[in-house]
């Protein structure tokens, strides 16, 4: 057994996992406020990446300006989605909202296809592809950057949810009616959660766009993001981060063991197994909120 | 000061009709006045329309696809019939909804923070919290545990405290005594009375527990089948034989003839 190689697999797996977390954090934000897994988070991530490209490559802005500007635009788009589409569905069954997010995902994919076409474009962040050596270990720089962004966002949101606005958002997640009764604007809160999730989507879009190129396939990251979010508990940001690391390591190390046995493709199997087993054995995930029952 | 302005009730509701889903008539021409600084009770049995009346006043009807289809509601002289619920809270109406709906996954302290109006400064909020903890010392003791694990009485106190953070001039409570032991009901009602006296806050109290409610209010309305069938001072209501028999559990034994007589009379009144 080559321990250095195994450690390398585990560390790079953990870093990749944190990139899934980057995606899952957006899902968690919306789930917390609306109790709906946002099936359009993939679409939003893809649009986030395209907006950055449009501002930097097409409009010629430098990246350090294009990315924050894209974040502002996407923040507005998130609010807009609540205002135009979700507000009408307030009080309807959750399945309706779920279908709406699915429709939105298809719509966003179609829109980017119409505007920018389907050829994969590169983000050109300028992060070097020279591997980083940590002792004997090879580490991918872009993954390291992405993991750093994920952790920064995680810390930022932990602080945010202790602020007054953050507490109001958590109150909305608990009880819409009680929130209205004390004058909390549920509509604005849900809008804010979509806006924040859209900003997270820009971060995920830039990093994943750099790694695998910007095209419609970015929206398919939803499946891994959703697995991480479910494993973490759907409404826990901490859960999303830890579950990301776990899934990343499982996937990378597990695939190394399994691939020779089954002839490849075991990554997808591991992800699928994690999703199915979580739902079957621990539906609240690792850190999910349990319904409080007093005895 | 102008005498007329002083005499104006803080809330007046005139022949209000409420429709749910555009078809179900829940209250049929309810008129209620709450004089400034008074405690008023809205009595009646299950499904009589008491909660609907409160929701019409607080604007929470909309969340349940209900609407005021006739009549008007005035708060401090302003027509609020069509106003957004959030706006009404800003104006000073706060509705403690039925069933102790605290934010279960937040601590009591966070529950109070969540209700703070947007413009309230930190020091102002701390002052409000201190005042609330003074009224409800039990809450102060448990201010950092999860609200979902508080006892029923504590949750009711928290729900009232949370409403107080919005600094209402009219506090409306929907069945605060529901499912609580009598000594707790007495404790909570005592505190309500204290708040009413110390802050001059007007209170509209919806109760099935007429016995407890009539002890602390000055005036009461009796609602049945979506209509106000009786209105009077607390003393008058307490001594009314029908109220005694049907809502206070007192009076002479009920014989069937009297019940029939009562319901016939009720039909006439409504």
Secondary-structure topology with pairs:
The complex is a heterodimer of chains A (295) and B (270).
Chain A: H1 3-34, H2 41-58, H3 63-86, H4 94-116, E1 132-134, E2 137-139, H5 141-160, H6 164-174, H7 176-181, H8 186-212, H9 222-232, H10 237-262, H11 266-281
Antiparallel strand pairs in A: 1-2
Chain B: H1 3-7, E1 11-20, E2 24-34, E3 39-43, H2 50-58, E4 66-75, E5 78-79, H3 85-91, E6 93-96, H4 108-114, H5 122-135, H6 137-141, H7 152-165, E7 170-174, H8 182-199, E8 202-207, H9 210-216, E9 219-224, E10 227-233, H10 234-239, H11 241-246, H12 256-269
Parallel strand pairs in B: 3-8, 3-9, 6-7, 7-8
Antiparallel strand pairs in B: 1-2, 1-4, 4-5, 9-10
Description:
The complex is a heterodimer of chains A (295) and B (270). With 295 residues, chain A is mostly helical. Chain A has a domain at 3-122 and 130-215. Helix content of chain A is 73%, strand content 2%. Chain A contains eleven helices and two strands; from the N terminus they run ααααββααααααα. Chain A has helices at 3-34, 41-58, 63-86, 94-116, 141-160, 164-174, 176-181, 186-212, 222-232, 237-262, 266-281; strands at 132-134, 137-139. Chain A has a two-stranded antiparallel sheet. In chain A, strand 1 and strand 2 form a beta hairpin. In chain A, helix 2 (41-58) packs across helix 8 (186-212). The longest helix of chain A has 32 residues, at 3-34. The mean pLDDT of chain A is 92. Chain B has helices at residues 3-7, 50-58, 85-91, 108-114, 122-135, 137-141, 152-165, 182-199, 210-216, 234-239, 241-246, 256-269; strands at 11-20, 24-34, 39-43, 66-75, 78-79, 93-96, 170-174, 202-207, 219-224, 227-233. Helices cover 41% and strands 24% of the residues of chain B. Chain B is an alpha/beta fold and 270 residues long. Residues 1-5 of chain B have low confidence and may be disordered. The termini of chain B are far apart. Chain B has two domains: 6-91 and 168-176 and 200-247, Rossmann fold (3-Layer(aba) Sandwich), CATH 3.40.50; 95-166, no CATH class. In chain B, helix 4 (108-114) packs parallel to helix 7. Chain B is built from twelve helices and ten strands. A six-stranded mixed β-sheet of chain B has the order 6-7-8-3-9-10, with helices on both faces. Classes of the chains: A mainly alpha (295), B alpha/beta (270).
